[in-house]
Batch of 2 targets.
Target 1
Amino acid sequence: MKLTYEAVSDVGRKRKGNEDSVFVNPENKLFVVADGMGGHAAGEVASSIAVDSINEFVCATGGDEEITWPFGLDESISYDGNRLKTAVRFANRKVLEITKEKTEYEGMATTVAAVLVDGATANLAHVGDSRIYLVRAATLSQLTSDHSWVNEQIQSGIISAEQARSHPLRNVVTRALGGRTDLQVDMQSREMEPGDILLLCSDGLTNMLPDDEIGSLVSQAAGDVKRAARDLVDAANARGGEDNITVLLIKFEE
Ligand code: CA
């Protein structure tokens, strides 16, 4: 399938720096959003190490060369699924290495939402509270489930999604790169249809805008991913822009 995409990362209206990273490798059909944490420059460092390391591993495994899988092979998922899953775990190891080397980076971490496309199949990986949505026939559905404290509360029926978006602990992630060596990466694979749009985003979008507004803005752009990306960022800023806002839209066409 033919892919068109647009990536925008915006500092927002309250933060001094942008700790999000967004990355596209069109040749390998790799798309990544990472949201760094750790204060000062550390968050920026964590998210950029993550996207660089994921790309490094995906590029190194793109040919037909013999590969050593550093964390073993997962038989339950495809080759490309394994490439992406291992790339995220490889990136986790890199973030942890840098954390140990330099005290100013102690405690830094990052989320990852990543897509690796093979034909009509989209392999999805995520860790943390950056999300992947599917927009199909003007309907938005969230494909990933946040690894966050507020999501655990929602799942337990203690708070609503609406309350979660403004909860004081909304930024607490329960899983991130830079946490532990045996990182669990949530994987899934989806068959894409012509006209489908995948949206990868950081919580600077989803804490500002409810899902129905995100869905409307993408649908109103009528397949124009550039316009959709700009409209989403503008809307999140208009609503306060309290965090860095990153959106990456990928449209699938025949
Ligand atoms: Ca964020």
Note: Residues 197 and 217 are 12 Å apart (CA to CA).
Target 2
Amino acid sequence: MPYTANPTPDGSRPIAVITGASSGIGAATARQLAAAGFEVVLGARRFDRVEALARELGGRAIALDVTDRASVEAFAAANPRVNVLVNNAGGAQGLEPLAEAVDEHWRTMWEANVFGLMLVTRAFLPALEASGAGHIINVGSIASQESYAGGSGYTSAKHGVTAITETLRLELLGKPIRVTQVDPGMVETEFSLVRFGGDEARAQQVYRGVEPLTGDDCADIIAWVATRPPHVNIDHVRVTPVQQATATVVHRG
Ligand code: NAP
């Protein structure tokens, strides 16, 4: 659905920065925010992908590893103006019970979903405030609110995203910065392929008998929250496929 970006206080074209824009929800968000009138700035490690998408959307692409402070600071320095920051980069690794937890999986999940989100947000906060009408949109997950067996590395990291969103909402009160968290259930992207180390058959099993959300379904919500009037803060949106009631209760037809 088409939405229209709010005019900026200084009359300049609004700028949206999207992390993890090389795939899935982030790439779809870039398309929809560009369609809403934002100049889009795309960051991800796979630079060839963000570069191609930025060219198509008339935006800009910058190589970004959200876990690397120097990379994040260079990314922010290249973008002194920003109106909307979509913290989307992240994902899951493995599905082991805690007794078999893989250190490297946990580090990757915590570094990308939690530490990286902090680095990027901290780096952009001055520019968001200076914009006069900034907006931080954190992509959490149904795993930001629920736990499931085998998921503690990911659910604990995404619960961390909820804590950060709620904290930012308190800390930024009185400043012209909105804070939103969007928590999707099952979305068919590269998420499960990454989670299962490239095992396509296992990744496909996740969506067996279900019509999952698409990246576009989530991007539609992100574009909607970003284009509400500046005094309206959508705090939290949880969205699932109609066949998914909780993280683990799914009707498979
Ligand atoms: P995806 O297709 O695997 O996309 C993940 C994106 O994150 C990619 O663009 C990837 O880019 C980027 N990324 C990962 N680590 C990064 C890092 N260190 N630095 C920069 N970018 C990084 O999966 P997706 O479903 O679109 O996931 C997007 C977000 O939605 C994630 O936060 C995920 O946890 C969340 N989510 C997904 C689902 C689902 O079912 N799919 C459900 C709820 C929440 P590069 O690899 O090119 O760097």
Note: The helical segments are 24-35, 47-57, 69-77, 103-130, 152-171, 191-195, 200-206, 215-226.
